[in-house]
């Protein structure tokens, strides 16, 4: 490795040759976070514009009473799509893009932990979003409201393809949310600069970490709900149909179990932007870092205990509702901690009213207003009055526009010099601010009153002369002002990119790592990765940018064409491995196209195509995984500053292990939602207990247990053999585990199929079947993984040191066994316990 | 309830203006905040203040909510039933003898007395909301919810469906008519006999074309809106039209597909104008 260090220019050329993306069609293979992050943000902005146009259509319709601008079927599609686009295609992906782009730069890494996963997520987002927009252009957009309450969204009352577009399209897009959440969590925990202990992380990384974990737990209930509703619509299995033991309230629970955390998933990243941007313009370090970290962890937990406040008017017992009311108020406390920490930062500093600061002041007014009306709607009797009225419409726009859009616009002006290397042009940005601020308040402040006067949401028209006319007209005027403001903002961004003055390095005098980079940053970020000694690395080393460019720090010398970044111990931030990132690849695109084929096949009811699509997805995924790893044990290599580290394939805590663990966390959240659903129906739904319970079958149970427990046992023995260096034995035991997985899949699936009532007859039979299929699917996937492990052993990718494949397979098999045991208990023991007294 | 709103409103306004004033104040001064004790500031305003204010609010909220629940009381609440369907409300009142009186679009209650509305849904989720009387409660298939309300003074109270329920969610209004307590029994009795005149020439047309779905006898349930007392109703079609007599009914019969597209009422294109006019005339006698 000893060679003369290259000059900065030569180092730049060498690194660019390794990290750069090919031009032309090569762009489709891009996995670099600079490119994928920008793609995410630009696509999200396009969807934001579409959602905005839909909003203008709504305001045009409601401007006058009895206005016949659109027929009701079109209006219902428009407002459903407005909510859907803004929530799923704008807010969440915009956060994903921002985090993709910023995280490596702020953490002092060169890319994220799984660059190909980012690319895959982007393609899923783009394709899923395009389905939904395409359906709208074809006139078959979803029209049941963005929360798709059943039975309105059931096949009886929404027979068309519209509801399927929503369920399948959104689930497809959610793949990108889950993959982003896995990506961010693993990246924040493992891919940081040397010395960046958790307590030294830039505060926004804490926000992104909490958000990502919330996404892992919060999105699966919605994905499960969508799958169940799509199964009900397609195959008639009742989960939500009260005539057959289902309950429409189950959908509401699953939806809001996702939907409320979703609000904080949207707010927290934006709050992270505030905590990052505000101190720079206050010219004072953020006050109360520890208090804020505690507050946002508290918010993360509390946000999962609030969902019922969307359901105060469904007739849940008052004391239960009171609990959720208290929790909903409690979440105001961590919010207040942040607000007052920001105010204290401003008070301590000498704030300057630059453009980002102007948008932050707008945030204070709008978001605090939305937060306070949030406390009001947490008051149960008050909510009974304003629920589903325009008061709530006003409240949610204050929270989401105040809590997400304004901070993000502040962030846009703050980070645009980083992205484009150019400074903002002030006049347009100020004009845009005032138009948006005045227009927004005109639209939505009045809407509180419209709601208090009794106007329900989602009506396509209203009668004249009951006091709503002038309020709606002014709201419409305000809406168009806001839209002009956003258009001006977009023009401003383009103008800045084209005509802005070139920005000097670190134009705002910030102290976080992304401003150590040249503007705009090259594909590899920093030519060498600087050490981190405090929360404000640029305050410690004002010259860090030049030092990094001069190659004075970690990973300064490119070698073997490797795409290198540092892996650190999660807590201390000490380097513990050298992470080799994967090259650009078309595999993410192919995988997402194969996934799209599966979704389209279900949407168009061409089920035979699923039989083509699923093997294609599996093939792509295996090809993806196969292309990574090393065929011989790595040795420690020098990483600079006189230290050395082992390349990640030889390290236990490598990102791939984290990826699997985090994926299983999301999977477990889905399974827990399914168990919750099964028990909820049993306890709450009308029409229980079911007419017939699942027959008791000792032989099938024994076979299932043998398979479920045998697979991880074989995996564990294989791993033990591998530790003693016996790769061949590991391969053989993996094959044995594969067989056990097949046995488990067959036995578990046979249980309801042979011993259950027809699944369409009752929700009990339907949930039993879905539980069993969930376990069987996992056992079958475990078999594929075990076969893959055996093949990896044979191909020389596995050794006592390089043991990721058998370890991850074992983790999967162990998880499957636990799920299987829970399912068996629920299917065989619980009916007997719960029904022993009532069934003869 | 109203007092609770005003307290929340003024508290919230004060907090909002306070926060914004502090934020603006920081822009206009030299470093006066040096003496600020950050820990106390954040703990005081970010924790102690909201904890106290919210605790008080929670207690008041729970007590207020508890007081609104349908609980057995000394006087006993009157039972009525409301059933939501796409896109109209059917109601059932019971007279003193316990016989049902069915109506559509108008719920009759006595003023000055607690009334328990037993709310159900026939198809999708709806929500029963009379803003001036009390909060809303959802009508959910498979569930029965009970809403306690009380009209202190006699009068007409507008109501509407508050949960999006499909194409014509906007045209799903109803009215609660609160009668003076002493006149309630008579009002129900009048409704029970407000059948159209069987001798009217339109009776045969109605029987041939409408009666398979619509009843005209308030004592019997009907699949489509019960038309007993139609001539006295304020509105037609879930609030689509003001009921100004025969002309309105005729307009509805001719043009309901454009006035309220998607409603379950079949097209009357096969019926000539004279028939429709006779039917409208017949219904005009339902008073």
From TrEMBL, chain A:
What chemistry does it catalyse, as a reaction equation? 4 Fe(II)-[cytochrome c] + O2 + 8 H(+)(in) = 4 Fe(III)-[cytochrome c] + 2 H2O + 4 H(+)(out)
**Cellular component terms (Gene Ontology):** plasma membrane
One Pfam family from the UniProt entry? COX1
Which CDD domains does this UniProt record tie to the protein?
Ubiquinol_Oxidase_I
NCBIfam families per record: CtaD_CoxA
Family, per entry: Belongs to the heme-copper respiratory oxidase family.
Task: Please state what the protein is called.
Answer: cytochrome-c oxidase
Q: Give the source species.
A: Teichococcus aestuarii
């Amino acid at each position: 490795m000893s060679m003369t260090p290259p000059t900065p220019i030569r180092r730049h050329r060498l690194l660019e040759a390794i990290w750069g993306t090919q031009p032309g069609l090569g762009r489709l293979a891009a996995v670099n976070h600079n490119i994928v992050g920008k793609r995410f943000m630009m696509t999200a902005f396009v969807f934001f514009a579409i959602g905005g146009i839909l909003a203008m259509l709504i305001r045009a319709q409601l401007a006058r009473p009895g206005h016949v601008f659109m027929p009701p079927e079109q209006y219902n599609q428009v407002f459903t799509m407005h909510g859907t686009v803004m929530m799923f295609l704008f807010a969440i992906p915009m956060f994903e893009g921002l985090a993709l782009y910023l995280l490596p730069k702020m953490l002092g890494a060169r890319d994220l932990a799984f660059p190909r996963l980012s690319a895959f997520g982007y393609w899923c987002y783009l394709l899923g979003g395009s389905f939904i927009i395409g359906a709208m252009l074809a006139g078959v957009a979803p029209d049941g409201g963005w929360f798709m309450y059943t039975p309105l969204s059931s096949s009886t009352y929404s027979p068309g393809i519209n509801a399927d577009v929503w369920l399948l399209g959104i689930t497809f897009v959610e793949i990108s949310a889950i993959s982003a959440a896995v990506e961010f969590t693993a990246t924040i925990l493992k891919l940081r600069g040397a010395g960046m202990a958790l307590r030294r992380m830039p505060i926004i990384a804490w926000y992104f970490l909490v958000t990502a974990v919330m996404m892992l737990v919060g999105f699966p209930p919605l994905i499960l709900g969508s799958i169940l509703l799509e199964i009900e619509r397609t195959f008639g299995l009742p989960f939500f149909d009260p005539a057959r033991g289902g309950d429409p309230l189950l959908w509401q629970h699953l939806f809001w179990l996702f939907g409320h955390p979703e609000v904080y998933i949207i707010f927290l990243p934006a709050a992270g932007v505030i905590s990052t941007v505000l101190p720079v313009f206050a010219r004072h370090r953020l006050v109360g870092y520890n208090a804020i970290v505690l507050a946002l962890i508290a918010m993360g937990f509390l946000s999962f205990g609030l969902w019922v406040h969307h359901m105060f008017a469904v007739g849940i017992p008052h004391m239960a509702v009171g609990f959720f009311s208290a929790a909903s108020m409690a979440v105001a406390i961590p919010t207040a901690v942040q607000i007052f920490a920001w105010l204290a930062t401003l008070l301590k500093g000498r704030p300057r009213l630059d453009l980002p600061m102007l948008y932050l002041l707008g945030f204070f007014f709008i978001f605090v207003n939305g937060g306070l009306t949030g406390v009001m709607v947490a008051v149960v009797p008050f909510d009974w009055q304003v629920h589903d009225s325009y008061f709530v419409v006003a409240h949610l726009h204050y929270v989401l526009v105040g809590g997400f859009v304004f901070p993000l616009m502040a962030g846009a002006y703050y980070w645009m010099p980083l992205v484009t290397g150019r400074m903002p042009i002030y006049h347009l940005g100020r004009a845009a601010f005032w138009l948006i601020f005045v227009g927004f308040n005109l639209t939505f402040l009045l809407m509180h009153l419209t709601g208090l006067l009794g106007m329900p949401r989602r009506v396509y028209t209203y009668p004249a002369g009951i006091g709503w006319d002038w309020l709606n007209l002014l709201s419409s005027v305000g809406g168009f002002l806001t839209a002009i403001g956003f258009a001006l903002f977009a023009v401003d961004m383009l103008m800045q990119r084209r005509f802005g003055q070139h920005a000097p390095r670190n134009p705002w005098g910030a102290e976080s790592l992304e401003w150590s980079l040249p503007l705009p940053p090259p594909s590899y970020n920093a030519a060498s990765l600087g050490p981190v000694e405090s929360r404000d690395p640029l305050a410690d080393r004002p010259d860090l940018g030049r030092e990094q460019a001069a190659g004075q720090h970690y990973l300064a010398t490119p070698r073997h064409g490797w795409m290198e970044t540092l892996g650190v111990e999660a807590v201390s931030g000490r380097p513990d491995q050298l992470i080799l990132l994967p090259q650009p690849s078309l595999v993410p695109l192919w995988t997402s196209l194969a996934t799209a084929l599966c979704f389209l096949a279900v949407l168009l009811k061409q089920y035979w195509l699923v039989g083509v699509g699923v093997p294609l997805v599996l093939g792509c995924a295996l090809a993806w995984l196969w292309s990574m790893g090393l065929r011989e044990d790595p040795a420690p290599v020098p990483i600079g500053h006189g230290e050395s580290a082992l390349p990640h394939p030889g390290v236990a805590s490598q990102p791939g292990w984290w990826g699997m663990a985090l994926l299983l966390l999301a999977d477990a959240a889905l399974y827990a939602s399914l168990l919750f659903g099964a028990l909820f129906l049993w306890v709450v739904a009308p029409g229980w207990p079911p007419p017939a319970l699942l027959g008791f079958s000792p032989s099938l149970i024994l076979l299932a247990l043998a398979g479920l427990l045998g697979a991880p046992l074989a995996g564990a023995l294989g791993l033990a053999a591998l530790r003693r260096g016996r790769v061949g034995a590991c391969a053989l035991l993996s094959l044995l585990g594969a067989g056990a997985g097949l046995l488990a899949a067959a036995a578990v699936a046979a249980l309801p199929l042979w011993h259950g009532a027809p699944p369409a007859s009752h929700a009990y039979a339907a949930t039993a079947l879905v539980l069993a299929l969930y376990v069987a699917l996992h056992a079958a996937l475990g078999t594929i993984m075990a076969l893959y492990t055996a093949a990896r052993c044979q191909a020389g990718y596995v050794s006592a040191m390089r043991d990721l494949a058998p370890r991850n397979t074992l983790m999967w098999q162990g998880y499957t066994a636990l799920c299987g045991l829970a399912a068996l208990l629920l299917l065989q023991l619980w009916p007997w316990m719960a029904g022993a007294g009532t069934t003869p | 309830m109203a007092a609770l709103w005003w307290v929340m409103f003024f508290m919230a306004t004060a907090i909002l203006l306070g926060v914004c004033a502090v934020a603006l104040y920081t822009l206009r001064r030299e470093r006066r905040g040096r003496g600020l004790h950050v820990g106390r500031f954040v703990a005081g305003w970010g924790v102690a203040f909201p904890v106290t204010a919210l605790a008080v609010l929670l207690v008041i909220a729970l007590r207020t909510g508890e007081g609104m629940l349908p609980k057995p009381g000394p006087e006993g609440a009157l039972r009525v039933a409301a059933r939501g369907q796409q896109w109209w409300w059917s109601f059932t009142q019971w007279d003193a003898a316990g016989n049902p009186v069915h109506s559509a679009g108008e719920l009759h209650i006595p003023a000055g007395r607690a009334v328990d509305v037993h709310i159900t849904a026939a198809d999708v989720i709806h929500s029963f909301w009379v803003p001036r009387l009390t909060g809303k409660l959802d009508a959910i298939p498979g569930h029965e919810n009970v809403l306690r309300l009380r009209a202190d003074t006699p009068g007409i109270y507008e109501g509407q469906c508050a949960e999006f329920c499909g194409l014509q969610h906007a045209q799903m209004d109803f009215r609660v008519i609160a009668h003076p307590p002493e006149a309630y029994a008579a009002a129900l009795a009048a409704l029970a006999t407000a059948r159209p005149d069987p001798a009217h020439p339109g009776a045969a047309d109605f029987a041939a074309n409408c009666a398979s779905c619509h009843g005209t006898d308030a004592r019997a349930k009907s699949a489509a809106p019960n038309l007993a007392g139609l001539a006295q109703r304020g509105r037609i079609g879930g609030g689509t039209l003001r009921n100004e007599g025969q002309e309105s009914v005729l307009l509805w019969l001719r043009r309901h597909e454009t006035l309220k597209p998607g409603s379950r009422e079949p097209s009357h294109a096969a019926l000539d104008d004279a028939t429709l006019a006779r039917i409208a005339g017949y219904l005009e006698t339902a008073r």
